[in-house]
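Hi C.,

You asked whether I'd gotten around to modeling the 244-residue construct. I have! Everything is below, sequence then structure, no commentary in between.
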Amino acid sequence: MFGLPKIKYSPPAGHLIRHYNSNLNTLLRIIQFKLRFVSLILIVTALPGLGQVMTPMDTLYASDSLGFTKRIILKPIQWWQHFSYNEPSTNCQFSSSCSNFMVEAILERGLIGGSIIGTDRIVRCNPAARYYQRQLPNGQVQYDGRLVDPPDWTKETNPGKSPALAVSLSIVPGLGRAYTGHSVDGFLSLILVSAFAYNTYNHHEAGNSVRAGINASLMTLFWMADIYGAYRSASMSASTGNNP
C-alpha cells in the first residue's frame, strides 16, 4: 500500500578485501600449477632425447675450454636445447636464441650477472617483442625474421626515458618497464615475481625451508632481472627529438 524506500546495500570494506585476496590467491595458484606442469613436461620430454641432436651446447661441452663448475651450471641449458632443437614450436624469435644468449651472458659476465641478463631476455621473449624491437632507434631484424638482440647493447646518448627513474620505479616489479613503454614485459615480471613470492611464503609456512629457499632465489633473480630490464629499456629508448 505504502511503498518503502529502497536501500542500496554496500558490502563492508572487509568483505571486499577478502574477495580481492581470494581472487588473487586463485590466480597465483593457477600460475603455480602451470609452472609445475611446464617443468614436468620439460623433464619428461627432454631426458629421453639426450644426445639425439647436436646443439651448440654439445659443441661447447666437447671442447676443453669449459671448466668443471661451468659444466655443472650450464647443464640444464644443454638439457633444454636437446628438447627445443627437436621441437619446431620452441624456435626462438631472437638471434641468438634465449638459451644461447644465457650461455654467452654467463660466460662473459659470470654466474650472477649473466643469469640476471639472461633472465631479462626470457621475460622479454613474448609476443610484444617484435613491436618493441621496432621502437628501438637501431632495432634490427635478421634475414630470417629473427630479432637481433646481442647481450652487449648500445646505450643512447640522449635516451628518451630516465634510466635512474626506471630503476627507482622497479621497487614495484614491472613498474619501471611500464614507465619505459614495455608494459607487457612489466606485467610478466610482476606476475612471475609475485608467483615466486607467493610460493616462498606458502613453503615457509609449511616448514619446507628447501622449497622456500629455491622460490626465494627465483623471486630475487626475476626481480633483479626486472630492474636490469627497466634500466636497459630506458637506456635504449629513442629520444623525443627523434620521434616523428
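If it helps when you're writing up: The chain has two domains: 45-91, 93-244.

Thanks,
B.
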